[in-house]
What we know:
Oligomer: single chain
Number of helices: 16
Largest sheet: 4 strands, parallel
Distance between the termini: 56 Å
Strand content: 5-15%
Amino acid sequence: MAQKHDLFDDIIDISKSLDTLKDPVGSLTDAFLGTADPEAPVWNPADYKERPRINTVPCLACRSEKSSCKLCAEVCPVDAIEIDDGEIDIHDNCRKCGLCVAVCPTESFISPRLKPKKLYDAIATAATAHTTAYVTCTRALKRVPRENEVVVACVGDITRETWFAVLSDFPNVSVYLPLGVCDKCRTKGGEDVLGEAIAGAEEWAGAGMGLEVEQRALVCEKRREYERKEFMDNIMRTTGLTVSKLNPAAAAVATVTQRLKEHNKKLSALERTLAQATGTTSQKRRRILTQGRQLVLSTLQSKPELAENVRVSIPECDFSKCTMCGDCVRACPTYACDLVGAGRFALESAYCVGCNLCVEVCPEHALTMVEHDGSELVVPDPEAEKKAAQAAQAKRDAEKMKAEAKRKLNAALDKVEKLAD
């Protein structure tokens, strides 16, 4: 249902028109005279790139010489990554494209700009306040991004898990990628990584990703409810008048910051719930939840119906072959597997990233990777369950009160009928 246009909307439209009319030729004058604002942002592609660092602790190749994982080296467009004797070196010819960060299943490559949660927050910020948000790369945009444009070094830097969370929460996000721009880019492989990530995310979310190929088609338009919210907040700051009290609809709109805080709070609560439910391993090791897996679990917690679309591979054990040697437990980068009881293999699937290392190190070949849907990844939400229980109890109390009122009414009517007789 379209939002009714009222007095506040008229005032907002008038104020925007007045801002445009204040100095209609100012920007042209600044351009001709060279007096542009010195503090205005300047387009520099290097601002969106950073050289990643390697954390060898969760790295599969560093944890075991039996690991066949070379995804980072294979995706690097300039062969800047070298794996040798359980160590990884990033050479000086690194293009800072970030593809190694995106393909690493254990998030061993560290790039603060490309952390899944940070990318999600950036896209969520743009999508929450605007009618459409765009994700693009430096080569495609070639200018200072607007508020609703999220720029990364390469479009392949965003993982399937991040795209899945974005698609599930924000249907108004599109990728901006002009036709042929990747063909001339020296970061080879980025388009393929993007295609695989989005294809997987679309299958999981049951929704499609938008695509724009022409820059003139990009729009930057704030959602009207957020314009109203900003306008009223500004009045409240300058006059002290709480305008939102005059408009309950505007008061109900959460700010972007509030929404992001709620999402991050939900992720932290999810991690605490998992930690309480699973505890530590038998070796007293604390299990590690990657940021990508956090986003997936959070999305499935709020939308459990998507679990049947999600496909994950987890190890299964043939106990007739297992000798309980513990090699799998020692190799697991997230400590998802364990030997419990009398040495029986056990797995906490929420922490397993499907890296296959436990299968590779098992000397008796007792483990095999098997594909499952995401039903095991749906973590119960204690707070939601508590609210549901309270709502159910309130409904029962209301039904009970209704039945009691009906009983009393019938009793009163019976008395009236007796008096009439």
